[in-house]
Design goal:
The structure holds 3 protein chains of 3 kinds. Chain A contains 20 helices and 22 strands. By secondary structure, chain A is of the alpha/beta class. In chain A, α10 crosses α16. Chain B is mainly α. Chain B has a single domain, classed as MetI-like fold (Orthogonal Bundle), CATH 1.10.3720. In chain B, about 75% of the residues lie in helices and about 0% in strands. In chain B, α2 packs across α10, α3 packs antiparallel against α4 and α6 packs antiparallel against α8. By secondary structure, chain C is an all-alpha fold. The chains are: A alpha/beta, B mainly alpha, C mainly alpha. Chains in contact: A-B, A-C, B-C.
Amino acid sequence: MTKKYFEVNNLKVNYNTFEGTKIVLDIDHIGIEKGEAYGLVGESGAGKTVLALTILRLLSVPPGEIVSGEILIDGENLLEKTESQMREIRGRKIAMIFQDPMSSLNPVFTVGYQMLQVIKINQKATEKEAVKIAVEMIERVKLPDAENIMSKYPHELSGGQRQRVIIAMALSCGAQFIIADEPTRNLDVTIQAGILKLLKELQEQFNVTVLFIANNLGLVSAVCDEMGILYNGRIIERGFINKVMTNPQHDYTKTLLSAVTQSQNEKKKDKSSNSNDEILKVSQLKKYFPVKKGFLDKESLFVKAVDGVDFGINKGEVFGVVGESGCGKSTLVNTILFLHEPTEGKVIFDGKDIYSLKKNHLRKARKDIQIVFQDPFWSLNPRWLVKDIIGEPLQVHENLSAEAYVDRVGALLEMVGLPKEGAFKYPHEFSGGQRQRIAIARALSVEPKLVVLDEPTSSIDVLSQAQILDLLYELKEKMGLTYILISHDLSVVHYMSDKIIVMYLGKIVEYGKAEEVFKDPLHPYTVALFNAIPDLNTQSVKELATLKGNVPSAINLPQGCRFHPRCDKATERCKSIEPEALYVDGRIVACHLFSK
Amino acid sequence: MLTKLFSSKLMEPKLKEAKFSLFLLNRNKLTKISLIIVLLLILIAVISPWIAPYPGHTDLEVNPQDKLLPPSSQYFFGTDELGRDIFSRVIFGTRISLNTALVAVILSLIIGIPLGAVAGTIGGKIDELIMRITDIFLSFPPLLLAIAIAAVLGPSLQNAMIAIAISWWPWYTRLVRGQAISLKERQFVKAAEAIGTSQNKIIFKHIIPNCISPVIVQASMDMGGVILTISSLSFLGLGAQAPTPEWGLMISTSRNFFLNAWWYSIFPGIAIFITVLAFNLLGDGLREILDPKTRKN
Amino acid sequence: MKKYILRRILLGIIVLFGVIAITFTITRVIPSDPAAKWVGPRATHEQIQEARIELGLDQPYIIQFGKYISDLLHGDLGYSLRSHQPVATELKNYIPATVELVLLATLLAIILGIPLGIYSAKYKNRWLDHLSRLFSVGAVSLPTFWVALFLQLIFFSKLEILPLGGRISTNISIMYELPNITGMLLFDSLVTGKFMIFKDAFLHMILPGITVALYPIGLVARMTRSALLEILNEEYIVASRSYGLPEKTVLWIYALKNSLGPTSTVVALSVGYTLMNTFLVEAIFSWPGIGRYISDAVIGLDYPAIMGVTIFSAVVYLALNLIADIIIALDPRVRV
């Protein structure tokens, strides 16, 4: 059998913890031909990052321990190299693109300084040559104004720019093999598409070999030729993308696939449960945060996080809120919940104007609106027992005897599908999905009318995601709840929602029935957003939509339409006049393209 | 009923945590040794009246015919200028130092923790006010504060303790404030707010319990520093007064004889050193053991 | 940046005002009559009354405080109750000796403590680390006054190679005219080329210098180690290793600059501690610094002198913190 360019054979890596030795990697084989892209899919904890660090020999030992196996690149076994030999290989042969562009650049040095250091070491270049190479690399990753970028500190760049700089750095080492460890995990979808395109282009142009690590099948299918699925440190399925996608063998692969295809088999929505009673009415809601310029400056600027938002939610509906980070969706919800003081506007909940309520009435109203947070690891106080966590709203709002209290908590746990005994455990003894169930039980303990779901599935594993969504749906039907669902995962929103709003920089750009908006998005931003996400039908990253530029700062908003600097269809009018909300085919779109 | 049923379960997670801590402790030999020393010192402090060969020598009793004798089998650490057994006095000093330091640290915690939690959680003007007051107290050298208090209230061990507490609490306020600021962004605090939990309850039930680990680490390290400060104050005559067998005071008196009675100053000094060292090492080790980063791996 | 510094200075002044107000109040409640101190033990009742009016003690508290502040703004700290000399002049004579000691200790803390911490972090859990940790934790656990006595016992009374105390031998100070530029003898004698004086002053400096320096060296080494270890775990350090950067660049350029903030805070803190320790050490080594000055002032209940020293140390403390904050603000992330 001929050797491939990169091979991992029989690699076993252990972690020595106090509970004994844990096998974290047990990979029989990975082989990548030169110039190919190989996708490795797995969830957090599957051992993806351990593999990347093991290849570079940067795994901390102990607690890690490489037990056996070989990692071959160009026929050379990396596991037999000495530390100084490895230093020659790192950068020059293999480079890594890390998950979090925020923390993988040193914050106290300029981007240029860091690039030059790397170039000087790896290419043995003089200062002058290094500058030339750096500029060339920055241009190659399609960042404008290379010299300006080089003089910036990492925090002065946006997430997308930073990730491009990191790619430029990896390229500038002259590496032929790049490990990309979830390179788009913390980026917005429209930025993600750009990075994926760039990676693919570089791979094709320079014949670079790529090991692409991801937690999402859609990404891998768009970028890679072959793939492997990593589960608990083992590769349980491998092959060409098409083969795995169309004919998965392992149950786990099937689950992963169904998670991505969820939006296709959209939930049959039972319209009967929706009434026409409006439970929440938001009108002209604004929330500005003052930015202090300085101690002695009186005049201050504002971040216009939410800038004039109107919508209404009927009883029994699921109302989806969609948008990228910084669009104001979280601020919107926090302001509706009165966790933030509103700058302007009105919120009528259940016939009452929330902002004019007196303190004790407000507490009663709070009982009727509950929230389920994104991250079940931080939404539960780690020092409390589950019974106290679930019971916290009960203690605030109801006066129960000790016995009735424990009974209620037990019943709530059973309602969300957990055993009663869980009441006397601490949160860390539960898995992510179970913790989210606890958070749901807490929210529902006081029988609220409206529940805000803030990214309810984005921090839990794929296997539990679908179950949580189904549980939420079932509870909604049973208890007659109304949901506001915030998610950056469009398939989740598509699956659950009746109506959605799409937000961009504090404003609603599109508002309408979920099926209609997803089927036929009207606003150019909505179109770009929907097309930026690779799914299984995406054959190549070239099909993905990207937006030019960055999201402008919410302090210095663009004149006219906020989206116009990034919009392909922008006209002169868009630059000067802010578009009104227009009714188009039963929905609302804020765009001049649709004004007659 | 139900509670009883699950009471064994209630202990389970705590047991696991404790086991893990024990494992980390075992791995860290220096910490283990220091913990043993600290426990031993506490034991000595508790049973000192029974193990000191001459308990009377720690009070008003004098023994002039045996003055300034070098260490022997009768007087392990020798005798002082009044013929008192230095060994007995050093043993009793353990009790005095640990007791005073503990009270001073607890006093500082009582002042410092709530102020820090309130400042960090509420923020704004209240935070600004509390932090400025903290700054004022931090800019007093503890020694000067002790001097001032001794001048007003008269020098005594108790007043030295008060002086130390007054100059020490701002450190805890700063520490807890920093913790509170990061904790209040945590979703469980947001969740509590959304539920309608009162601010008091948020501060005392959510914020403070979650800042405890770093506070314990800091406090155990401070025990060493406080013991040093107490002995320094006593050395200057601003703390314990004769005939209290306080280590610093003993060294201070020994200065008049130190050229011909080396044992007089050496042993109380070693006692201070060992005690402070044990607490410092324990603090270092605890920091490592309670650090969430170490715990994760 | 300028605005940030201005804001910090302004806050510092507010804090200083608070310190002065509290100290002033304390000195007023001390059960002792400054007027009686002023005129001495044999004065008559009338003389004391006169002194009270002369010192303005008959005025209401607020007016006295206002007068103190306005005098302070003109650099007037009042008159010592014992010597009847201006406190400001007296401080000027005593401060250089203390500053000399503190500077030496701080210098040693920086040039010994920081490298010790770095090597300790680099060779974590190896013998060098264990040794350096044992040294540094030992250094912060030693009672300063005891170390001073111990050193005197060995080097003065047993080995007889170093002097017991003082800044300079009596015969030298009689034979030569002492240079006075900064008031710091070592520096002044070196600059003026008076090597006899330099040598003598240096010998006098050794024991108090070591005594005072132990604590800051240990403190700085410990803190540098832990700050560096934390940084070495950051992802950007792993990233720079993955680009093939040599370990010495990673450690001495990358990680060290990242740890500049915490390290400078610790150095500032350690100067504060050192200042406090010199108060103790000066008493033992008969070092004519402000530590001696305040000990005498306390015994004599000389409240203007006590206030003078308090204000001086508060100013030093606040200035150090300001410098540390400015160094932290140089970090581009918090740049203002």
